Amino acid sequence: MSENKEPHVAKFVYDFTEGNKDLKDLLGGKGANLAEMTNLGLPVPPGFTITTEACKVYLESGEEPAALRDEVSAHLDALEQRMGKKLGQADDPLLVSVRSGAKFSMPGMMDTVLNIGLSDKSVQGLAQQAGDDRFAWDSYRRLIQMFGKTVLGVEGDLFEEALDKAKQAKKVTVDTDLEAADLKKLVTAFKKIVKKEAGRDFPQDPREQMDLAIHAVFDSWNTDRAKLYRRQERIPGDLGTAVNVCSMVFGNLGPDSGTGVAFTRDPASGHQGVYGDYLQNAQGEDVVAGIRNTVPLAELEQIDKKSYDQLMQIMETLENHYKDLCDIEFTIERGQLWMLQTRVGKRTAGAAFRIATQLVDQGLIDEAEALQRVTGAQLAQLMFPRFDENTKVAQVGRGIAASPGAAVGKAVFDSYTAVKWSRSGEKVILVRRETNPDDLDGMIAAEGILTSRGGKTSHAAVVARGMGKTCVCGAEELEVDTKRRRMTVPGGHVVEEGDLISIDGSSGKVYLGEVPVVPSPVVEYFEGRMHAGANDADELVEAVHRIMAFADRKRRLRVRANADNAEDALRARRFGAQGIGLCRTEHMFLGDRRELVERLILADTEDEREESLKALLPLQKQDFVELFSAMDGLPVTVRLLDPPLHEFLPDITELSVRVALAESRQEPHENELRLLQAVHRLHEQNPMLGLRGVRLGLVIPGLFTMQVRAIAEAAAERKNAKGDPRAEIMIPLVGTVQELEIVREEADQVVAEVEAATGVELKLSIGTMIELPRAALTAGQIAEAAEFFSFGTNDLTQTVWGFSRDDVEASFFTAYLEKGIFGVSPFETIDKDGVGSLVKLAAEAGRRTRPDLKLGVCGEHGGDPESVHFFHEVGLDYVSCSPFRIPVARLEAGRAAITANGSDHR
C-alpha cells in the first residue's frame, strides 16, 4: 500500500530572526546580513524577507507565487503585533520600507521605496505621534516621489522640478529649509504629477502600496541598468532579487536624527580609522544619492557621542565577525541607533591587498583566505601608470579620492555623450553634479568620473570602486552646469565640453589638460627597482609582495611569457616568467629582413631559394643566441614561421599601380611585372585559412629546416659557452599527424647534423600548437609525434566559432554583448563550453597516448584571470602570456590551486 505524501511547499518569506549570512542565494545579500545582525543582537528594525525564489517565479510567469500573498500577510500580522501598530493606520501608523537585495551587491541598480503606509489620513497620525508636522509631510512627499518614479514609472525629473520650484518660492536652497506648509503643498503637487503622468491616483490603501512596491522591486531585476551592471560585473542573470520589508526608522525627525554610511576601514586605501559620511535630518537615500553634501563620520562624535560610541563598537563587532571590511548603513532616530544594512564592502585594488595582509597580521584570516580576497584584475589595476607628482599642469580643484587611478580625457556632461564619444575612439571623463543609476552606461564608457557633490559613499564612488574606475567625488569648488555643458573652476575659467582634463583618484586632484604619467610602484617592484619601506606606496608593495610569494608557493601552473626578443624576455624574467611559452619567429622577419623573406617566397629556382635561406640563417641564429642567453636555464618554445602569407608580400594594389605607371611612362618594369604575376599567383581570399604555418613549411623547401638549424646551432653555441639553453621547437597550424611527422623527420635530421658538426649533445623537444578543431579532435594521434602541446586559443577560438577576429569585434560583438549572447568576448575569456571542451578533450586524449605529454597554452587567454582557473582545472602544466600579465597569471594560478583544494572560505 503506497503512502500518501503531501507535495513540498516552498517557503517564500523569512523573518529576520530566521535567516543567516550563509543564505545569500535565497535571501539575497541584504536580507541574509540583516538576519545575521539580528542574530548578533544588534539593533535592527524588525522585518521580513521575500526570497529570490519568489522573484524567479514572478519573472518567469508574470505572476507572484500563489502562496506568497498569504505568507506576506502572516509575516505582516506578526510584525504589526510586535510593533503594536498596523500598517498605515490613521492614528499611529506602522510604516515600512521595501528594498531590493540580490545575492551580489548591485549598488543603486534596483529599486527601493521608503515610508510605505502613508496616506492622506495616516500622515496626520504620523505628525501627531511624532509631534512634528514637518517630518510627517516630508516623509509623505518622499513616498509619493519614490513610489511615482519607481512603481508607476513617472519621470523623476518632474518631481525634482516641482521641488526646485518650492524652494525657489520659499527662497531657500536646501530641502530642510522647507516648512510643513510648504511640504503639504508639495504633496498636492506631487499627487497631481502622478495623476497626470500615470493616469491614476496615488494609492491610499497601504497594502496596495506594499504589494505594488514588491512587484516593482521584482521588475527592477530586469531593468536596462541592472542588466548592464550585471554584464559589467559578470553577475549571472538568473539569480533574481530578494525583497526586504523592514519597519521604518526615521533619520529626518530633526537635528537629533540622521542617516549615514560607514566603513570599518578606508575602502580607498585600506587604512584603519573612522571612515564614512553622516547627514543630519535626512533619510538614507539622501546620502548615497549625493544630492546633499555630508559631513565626515568622525563629526558624529560631536553631534551625538552616545550613538557614535555605540556605532564604533558595532563596527568592530561586525568586522571581527565577517573578518573583512564591512560597509554599513545606519539611521539615528532621536538618539536611537538602528542598523539598516551591512555587507562586505567594495574596495579599491590597493585597499584589497592591504586589507588582506592586515587581517592576516590580526589573526582573523590565514594566508590562503588572504589570497582569495584579491584578484588578478585588481593586481592589473595596480600596475597601471600614475600621474607624475612633479607635473607643471594647472590644478583647478580637489575633491574626495574615491577610487584611485590616473584618468585623462575630454570632459563630457551626460552619459549619452560619454558612450557616443567613447565608441568613436575618444577618451572621456564623465562630469556630473552627482551620478545616479541611469548614468551607468556613461560611467562604464568613461576613463574616469568627476562629481561636485557626494562623498566616498555616494553612488559614483561605490560603483566606480566596484568597476575599478578612477573617481573623484565632492569637488565642491567646481561648478558643474550640465544643461550648458560646462564646468566653472576657481578663478572663473570655464571648461567646455570636449576640453581635456585629468583626474587623480588617489589624491582627489583635478587638472586642466593632460598630466604626464610615471610607472606604478607595483611595476617598479616587479622590475626590481623598488622595495618595501615606510611610505604609503611601499606599504602597498609590501602587501603585494607577501601575497605574490604565497601564490607562488601554492600554484601548480607554471607561468611563461610570450616574447620574441631578448629585451622582452629579460623583462618577463624580472616579472617572474619561468620560461618562454611562445616565441613568434615571424616577428623577427619584419623590417630589414622582409625583403629576404619576400625573395624566398617568390623564388623561381632552387638556387634563388638557397641564396635567400643562406642569408637568413645567421640572422636567425643570432636571434636565438640572444633569446637563449636571456632565458638561460629556462625553457624557450620557438614557434616556426606562422604568418599569413600576405604579410610578407607587396600590397597587390600598390604593386599594380606601380606597374601601370611604369607602362604608361614606357619605363623598364620587368622586375615589378614579374613580382606582380607572382603576387597574383599567391593571392588568397582568406589568408588566415590559407598558406601559412606548417603548410608554408611543407610547400617552401628548406624554410623550416633553416629555422631548426638556426635554433640548434644557437643552442650548441650557448652550451659551448657554459650556458643552459632549453629550446623547444613548435610546429604551427597542424591539422593532421602526417604533417607533423614529415616536419619532425626533417627537424630530427638537422639536429643530428648540428650535433655531429659541433660535438654538442642537444636535447631539443618537438611539439605542436593545437589551434584547429581537427587537431583537438585527433589529439591522440598527433601526440604520437609530439612531445608537447601548446594550445593556440586565439586561432582555436576563431576556427571553432567561425569568426574573423579583425572583422567581428568591430562589426557585431557590441550588439552580442548588449543582447547578452556573450557575457564577455570569447577572445577575452575562454569559451569553456565550446573552445574549452576541445582543450579538455585534446589534453585528455594526448595524455592517453603519451602520459608525459607537456601541456600549455599560449593564446591571450593565458593571462586572463578566469581562463587561468579553467586551465588549472583541465590539468595544463603552464600558461604563457605577455610580460605585463605575468604577475596576474601567477596570482590567479595560486588562487586556482587554493580553490581547487576546497579552501575558498567565502
Automatic annotation (TrEMBL):
EC number(s) stated in the UniProt entry for this protein: 2.7.9.1
Cofactor(s), names only, from the UniProt record: Mg(2+)
Annotated ranges, domain PEP-utilising enzyme C-terminal: 542-894
Tagged with keyword Magnesium: yes
Domain named Pyruvate phosphate dikinase AMP/ATP-binding: residues: 65-293, 300-350
Primary enzyme class: transferase
Residues engaged in binding substrate: R584, R639, E771, G792, T793, N794, D795
Binding locations of Mg(2+): E771, D795
Record lineage: Bacteria, Bacillati, Actinomycetota, Actinomycetes, Kitasatosporales
This protein's name: Pyruvate, phosphate dikinase
Active site, per annotation: H459 (tele-phosphohistidine intermediate), C858 (proton donor)
Keywords assigned by UniProt, alphabetized: ATP-binding, Kinase, Magnesium, Metal-binding, Nucleotide-binding, Pyruvate, Transferase
UniProt family annotation: Belongs to the PEP-utilizing enzyme family.
PANTHER family, A to Z: PHOSPHOENOLPYRUVATE DIKINASE-RELATED, PYRUVATE, PHOSPHATE DIKINASE 1, CHLOROPLASTIC
Chemical reaction(s) catalysed: pyruvate + phosphate + ATP = phosphoenolpyruvate + AMP + diphosphate + H(+)
Listed GO MF terms: ATP binding; kinase activity; metal ion binding; pyruvate, phosphate dikinase activity
Gene field: ppdK
InterPro entries assigned: ATP_grasp_subdomain_1 (IPR013815), PEP-util_enz_mobile_dom (IPR008279), PEP_util_AS (IPR018274), PEP_util_C (IPR000121), Phosphohistidine_dom_sf (IPR036637), PPDK_AMP/ATP-bd (IPR002192), Pyruvate_phosphate_dikinase (IPR010121), Pyrv/PenolPyrv_kinase-like_dom (IPR015813)
A Pfam family that the UniProt record links to this protein: PEP-utilizers_C
Entries under NCBIfam families matching the protein: PRK05878.1, pyru_phos_dikin
Domain of life: Bacteria
PEP-utilising enzyme mobile domain ranges (all copies): 426-508
